[in-house]
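Kindly draft a sequence, keeping tokens residue-aligned:
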Amino acid sequence: MTATIALAGNPNAGKTSLFNVLTGARQHVGNYPGVTVEKKEGIYIDQERKFRIVDLPGTYSLTAYSMEEVVARDYLVNEEPAVVIDILDASNLERNLYLTVQLLELGVRVCVALNMMDVAKNRGISINVDKLSMLLGAPVIPMVARSGIGKKEVMVASGEVADLSAVRPKLEITYGEDIDQALAELTDLIKEHRFLTDTYPALWIALKYIEEDKQIKDLGKGADPEVSARLEKIVDRLSRHLQKTLNTYPEALIADHRYGYIKSIIRQGVVTYHHKQDRLYISDKIDKVVTNRFAGPMIAAATIFGLYQFVFVYSEVPVGWFEGFFGWIGGFAETHLPEGLLKSLIISGIIDGVGGVLGFVPLLMFMFFGISLLEDSGYLARVAFMLDRVFRIFGLHGSSVMAFIVSGGIAGGCAVPGVMATRTLKSKRERLATLLTVPFMNCGAKLPVFALLVAAFFSENQAVFMFFITLAAWVGALLVAKLFRSTIIRGASAPFVMELPPYRVPTFRGLVIHTWERTWQYIRKAGTVVLSISILLWAMMTFPGLPKSEEHGFDNARKKILAATPLNTASGLDSQKMGDDLSPQAESVRKALLRVDAQEAEAALKHSVAGRMGIALEKVSHWAGFDWRTNIALVGGFAAKEIVVATMGTAYSLGEVDPEETMGLSKKLANSPNWRPLVALSLIFFVMFYTPCFVAVVCISREAGSWKWGAFSMIFNTLLAFMLAVLIFQIGSALGF
């Protein structure tokens, strides 16, 4: 039988590191049912047992202030895991024990993993593990999760806790005479009416009512409105009494007593400090430089530029391999497949469409590796801390920074988790302004478009242009946020407090896992969503086909070329099928025939459903420098931004006018008469700011609570993007670029 173990802990306590060390490649990521919070599960196998490991969202408490806390608490209560491994940061024991106390109050079976013992030792902190275990009434195992030290001991102890038949007594803390009396009254009433006791302990329900826990109160109103009203009346009486006598609120007093309980544990010889606590630790010394008001932003800019330099320099060769591989597949299909719709579908719809997207996998893999390195080292948290000063100028909250970074603030993220990350913002106005602007970030779906255009037109300074594109996205998002906060979403900014995790040396295993997770999500999307839409767009770019009269016109053009061809030259063309080299005259005829084929394909593309749509839009889009092929790609980008590259690959394959040689899409664009650097720059800004993808729009609507905000995001973003593209193209054209 497989026992389930849940991993709980504060953010930055090393929970994910332990999960990766335990499960390795035996893990998968999804979402919890009904919500969009990420759910990670994996398998741990030792010589005797098999465990299912569930990595709960990081949380500081079990009070329902955020969706992550609700998800973590609901899982513990409803799924009843055999044991909960509570990961603590040994160098910050007091704060981390707050969640431990709440877990013990809830009555779950707990095994404490005392992580980062190496950091605590370096800071001159020693912990009496046996004493702590005795006082908590739960096993405490010292470990260093990122290197795997102590993982076997933690799993052995967890297995022993899971095998215990006796139910562990729930922790009961004294909260002072006033609260204890109210708790007794509430508990008696809850037990008398069996109010929610099938799910939660009676004392715990009473505590949640006093703490004004919205989720529990909503559950109570649904279960028995009358009893719930009586409980709220008792809490209201307690609250008024505490405000009169102590000038405080019940939830604040409960937190004080919990920390008092924790201090009493620590002061019983559990923690010993070997030097003064006001000394500067290594992380603090580094922070004095990297978070400096003047040096910090310059270091951050240099770091991001270095990331792009690393990505483009080292990904150039593998990207070339991928392009060559898909080019070889396309050439093989061109040679061996019979003419017809199936051949067109495979080459233009699948190979040129999906292959154009998958060709950027090496570049994205290097990008994800670099971002994981910055994230796991703790540096990205410093970037968020520094940007808080800037964000306040534009009416946003410091917590908005992480939503921007998750969305692709450096590059390679995704707008969907970025939109969901806004749940941590307590202010509704700041939350709305953030979720409406995070889609401007350069997500992993936009990156192939930028990489394609930069490689085609700005190849000598790729890192510089990518850095410029990143900076433009940030500036644009902040200016739009300021516009929103000054007009439709007015209101004061809320205070911002965040925790800076200590600097760590990332483990190679962790970097590989994080890089592969993000890369595989991109590949999976290319193999499902992008493939489906590429086939649909291929059909739209293929049917209804040319009218018979136009087909006859191209057939006659071929007949004229062949009629003027000497007999020996025609024989030379036939011999090509057997692999013989062509004579110069036969090669000239072959190219003439291929040009007719390409002209016919271009005419058919223009006559197709997508072609007609693109040509109709060209009446407006020409102001921004976009031709009808680009319009087709941008319409496809409404579904997913990767489709822009896939559709351009298909469009330029179907309508390629110069078919003398097989070449990559970037070379096709560079050699196209309709393209030049100014057009590429205009398109970059349009893709950067126009409508979020369909999934992101759905998430914005859901998080904002109304479809009108999703529709507003699509319309406003597209209009803004088009205005910017027109300005860039028209001003650049006037200046002669």
